[in-house]
Amino acid sequence: MHAAKAQWDDPTGTIATIMRDVPSSADESDWGRRRQLLLDALPIASGIFEARENCVVATATNSRLDNLLNAGLDGVDAHWLNHALEHFLATGDESLELEWQREEVGQRHFTVRLHRIAPTDNTARCVASFVDRTAQVETERSLRTEMLHDSLTGLPNRLAFNEAVDEAIAGEEDKEAYAVLIVDLKRFSRINECMGSMAGDELIITVARRMMASLRDGDILARLGGNEFGILLRLGDGPGDALHAAKRISAALASPIRLSELEIRIDCAVGCALLSRQVAGAGDLIRNAQVALKRAKNTGKVEVYQPGEVNAARRRFSLETQLRRAIDADELSLHFQPLVDLDKGGISGFEALARWTPPGGAPISPVEFIPVAEECGLIVPLGRWVMDAAARTLADWDRQLGAPSDLYFSVNVSAVQLQRDDVAGHVASVLADHRIAGSRITLELTESSIIADPERAKRVVVALKDLDAAIAMDDFGTGYSSLAFLQKLPIDILKIDRSFVSGMLGDRDAVAIVRAVLSLADALGMRTTAEGIETVELAQTLTALGCTTGQGYYWSKPLPADQALDYYRARHVG
């Protein structure tokens, strides 16, 4: 037997050698022929290798392996294969599986499986098979590409964006070198509703192109879903780069976009989060940007995440869970703030205000839990509970007084409650259950709740007036109402916001505004209530200006039901 020797240059400067036995006619045997027939029958490239002094020898190969080896291995591939065989044959392992990527045009991928042959002498031998996985790898790569890209825009999707942010965080020593922007397109749902999903898709594609054109090389733009985009920015000149990028994006979207026969101007909200050493990973950084985005939707400005906002969000989420349980378990209470007749000095009624003190805990301010209730929809069951508890309290006061009094109670109706609940139907039910006249209830609506859906607000107000209830516009002057609403809606009372009342004695403009509101109410035949009266001087001034009712700490803070009744008895006027 003699050996044919193949050599390849090794980039490390050594020679990687694999030798193949070439049996002479004298060495041919029946066993050798059968071994070759068996190898040739295998559907994959296979061969038998054994360790010789300073080299590895292929003692038998099938044609598939011959073709693979004869295709020409460069130095890197030859060195890798020779080293793998030498290493395996030198160990006592029974089998070994390796992944081999041939460094050639197009790249081919193989799984190399090595299995030791029981030795008949002192020579180490193994069977090596080479499974071509190129098609599988390319398919997996193609599927991963599809999995990581948005099918509509071709941009990276949320998963790819998360990976890109994670890579930036892991590979960057300067932990303040990156920022994430989240961009949300306003009014996008209305475009889908009015023009259809195809127009919405066309808009998204156009927006993606414009945003991409506004970014710098190296910045990553991704579509996170729907009408939300994410941008990973490298900050060359500090945090100001992020704000400049936000301005470029806003400018790029400022020009109207033509869809069919319409020109549509797209506004966007932008939230920004800066990478810092306190950020654990991509999830935290993106979440911080989304927290800032939520604030940006309300302010209309680019907002940058501030430390502590996530904790505040967690606090709101915890409050939501606790509040839901508190409503179900009837753990809330009502306090009542007197509404004072400024002309006579007596008590006209009380505003019913929800209060919450968790069992064993400290009181939670309505300033904190009412916005949470509005955000998560709990304001509807909370509003219903307040209405029922106030009517029940008023009926109980009548029993204690021995006869129905002239008191009325005032209850706030949230904008969310006005939109989602059958307010008039519930009020009718409560009045019937507690046998309270409709004239003894006042519903306070904010200007914003009326503006949000004027037609629905009008239907609700008319239905409440049919129950003989009074309607007050709360916080008048702080919203966006026009005089047309005051004329069209049957409103009985204007409540002047405390922001105008509390400082009016030292502010001529505030006095002028209050005087104008009082004159307007008088001209329209409406009563007025001034909030936030804390001094006798304010009470006297408002009385002189013709204000009907006053409310504030000058008379009393909100009181529990029993104390409120005692207060009424003490100040009751004939």
TrEMBL record:
PROSITE patterns: EAL, GGDEF
Record domain EAL: where: 316-572
Pfam families reported in the protein's UniProt record: EAL, GGDEF
Domain GGDEF: 176-309
Protein name per Swiss-Prot or TrEMBL: EAL domain-containing protein
InterPro entries: Biofilm_reg_signaling, EAL_dom, EAL_sf, GGDEF_dom, Nucleotide_cyclase, Rev_trsase/Diguanyl_cyclase
